[in-house]
């Protein structure tokens, strides 16, 4: 396959344009915003104005009419410039996609133009304290009360709830309270009575915070339900596969950023007769990290291509593999990059050490390395299940 068939000239132009925006902001901007407890509002607004946030959303609702392939390019390039926007993983990629595919006309008109132009943001909540990786165990329950829904439950590690106008909450209906998950999705406005949040103290230097949420008899109109109450996993995975592809983009961008810093350093730092990058003990792991990031990107492109072509099943396997490959490649690239800088790898000035924690996110979320290996063992290889 020639590289032209993997990425079109338009994709390449998009990469170049987003990279230029990323250069304008860079790592220092994001680090300062995080330090001051703010949010990357200026970058978010600029990315929206240039059509990047809404690039995958339908044109008729203010989007760019592209797909997850384009959206993942945006996130990867911002990450490679040191300023990834984590909320892109949830707001346009999960929530925007689910609403575009399964929302009512009214939901589309209410949310999609705002998600595309950045004036509205939506968070996404599936993880629960007592379910964790086992989503079939989630207990957030929706019961009917006349035309309304009453939602009760708890969520944990939900990103960006404070800045999101609403959170797309995954629950289950009262009739489907046990057994295999038949998920249903509700748009819960940030200030809905009974919807409370407390920030989790994370060891992450990031502008986006994670929250524990309590839904205490939150009353929602029937219009808060997105899609069918019994549409099942298909509807959920319409959002989760883009999330995995976008997490791969996030990880690849971060890995590229760290690697570029390390390569720059290795070319100039000299403690013997040649720069340290001449020593193969340093050069080879950096080269291997580059190869792994490229391979991960290839799988990400395949997953995005399958997803955008409407092959949800094929995209599911590829999105898992891409997330796995990218998470592992990112962790290794960051680790080697920090090491390449010696003591400077741990200084604030060079800013790489905080990526050690950040890079682990892609190994854990939104689905852990082990759960992907489980999925591939059972679904792809047909091996028996131990749990
Ligand atoms: C920074 C950050 C942001 C996040 N943002 C969001 C968000 O916006 N929305 C949201 O819904 N969630 C979010 N999450 C949650 C994330 O998706 C979960 O942390 C993740 O799914 C793992 O769940 P857990 O933390 O409960 O780990 P657990 O499920 O408790 O797993 C702990 C360990 O056990 C392993 N394990 C579990 N089961 C098995 C098994 N069967 N076989 C082998 N190993 C197993 C796991 O791989 C893991 O290593 C976020 C998490 C982080 C760290």
Structural class estimated from helices and strands = alpha+beta
Distance between the termini: 40 Å
Ligands (ions, cofactors included): flavin-adenine dinucleotide
Beta-strand fraction estimate: 5-15%
Strand tally, please? 8
Q: What gross morphology would you assign?
A: globular
According to CATH, the fold-level topology of the largest domain is: Butyryl-CoA Dehydrogenase, subunit A, domain 3
Give the uncertain stretches in residue-range form.
Answer: none
CATH class of the largest domain: Mainly Alpha
What value does the Rg take, in angstroms? 21 Å
Number of separate helices: 11
* CATH H-level superfamily of the largest domain: Butyryl-CoA Dehydrogenase, subunit A, domain 3
Describe the structure.
- Strands 1, 2, 3, 4, 5, 6, 7 and 8 form an eight-stranded mixed beta sheet that branches.
- The protein has three domains: 3-120, Orthogonal Bundle (Butyryl-Coa Dehydrogenase, subunit A, domain 1); 123-226, Butyryl-CoA Dehydrogenase, subunit A, domain 2; 233-380, Up-down Bundle (Butyryl-CoA Dehydrogenase, subunit A, domain 3), CATH 1.20.140.
- Strand 2 (141-145) and strand 3 form a beta hairpin.
- It is built from eleven helices and eight strands.
- Helices cover 51% and strands 14% of the residues.
- Helix 4 (68-80) packs parallel to helix 7 (233-268), helix 7 (233-268) runs antiparallel to helix 8 and helix 7 (233-268) packs parallel to helix 9 (312-340).
- It is globular and about 80 Å long.
- The two termini are 40 Å apart.
- The protein has helices at 3-6, 9-35, 41-49, 68-80, 87-102, 105-117, 233-268, 280-308, 312-340, 354-364, 369-380, and strands at 122-125, 141-145, 148-159, 166-173, 183-189, 195-200, 210-220, 225-226.
- With 387 residues, it is α+β, with helices and mostly antiparallel strands.
- The structure holds flavin-adenine dinucleotide.
């Amino acid at each position: 396959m020639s590289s032209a068939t993997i990425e079109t000239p338009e994709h390449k132009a998009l990469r170049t344009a987003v990279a230029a925006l990323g250069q304008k902001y860079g790592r220092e901007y994001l680090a300062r915003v995080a330090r001051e407890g703010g949010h990357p509002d200026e970058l978010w607004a600029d990315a929206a104005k240039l059509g990047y946030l809404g690039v995958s959303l339908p044109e008729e609702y203010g989007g760019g009419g592209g797909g997850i392939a384009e959206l993942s390019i945006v996130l990867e390039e911002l990450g490679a410039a040191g300023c990834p926007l984590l909320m892109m993983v949830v707001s346009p990629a999960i929530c925007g996609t689910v609403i575009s595919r399964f929302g009512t006309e009214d939901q589309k008109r209410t949310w999609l133009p705002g998600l595309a132009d950045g004036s509205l943001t939506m968070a996404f909540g599936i993880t629960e304290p007592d379910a964790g990786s086992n989503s079939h165990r989630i207990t957030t329950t929706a019961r009917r009360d006349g035309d309304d829904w009453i939602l009760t439950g708890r969520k944990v590690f939900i990103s960006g709830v404070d800045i999101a106008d609403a959170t797309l909450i995954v629950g289950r209906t009262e009739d489907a309270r046990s057994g295999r998950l038949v998920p249903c999705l509700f748009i819960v406005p940030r200030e809905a009575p009974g919807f409370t949040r407390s920030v989790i103290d994370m060891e992450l230097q990031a502008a986006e915070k994670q929250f524990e949420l309590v839904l205490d008899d939150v009353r929602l109109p029937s219009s808060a339900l997105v899609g069918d109450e019994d549409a099942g996993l298909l509807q959920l995975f319409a959002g989760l596969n883009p999330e995995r592809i976008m997490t791969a983009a996030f990880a690849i961008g971060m890995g590229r950023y760290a690697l570029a810093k390390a390569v720059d350093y290795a070319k100039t730092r000299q403690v013997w007769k040649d720069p340290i990058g001449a020593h193969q003990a340093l050069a080879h792991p950096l080269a291997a990290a580059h190869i792994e990031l490229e391979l991960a990107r290839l799988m990400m492109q395949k997953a995005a291509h399958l997803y955008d072509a409407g092959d949800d099943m094929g995209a599911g396997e590829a999105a898992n593999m891409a997330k796995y490959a990218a998470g592992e490649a990112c962790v290794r690239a960051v680790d080697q990059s920090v090491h390449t800088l010696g003591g400077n790898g741990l200084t604030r000035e060079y800013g790489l050490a905080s990526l050690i924690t950040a890079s682990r996110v892609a190994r854990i979320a939104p689905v852990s390395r082990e759960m992907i290996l489980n999925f591939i063992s059972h679904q792809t290889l047909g091996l028996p299940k131990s749990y």
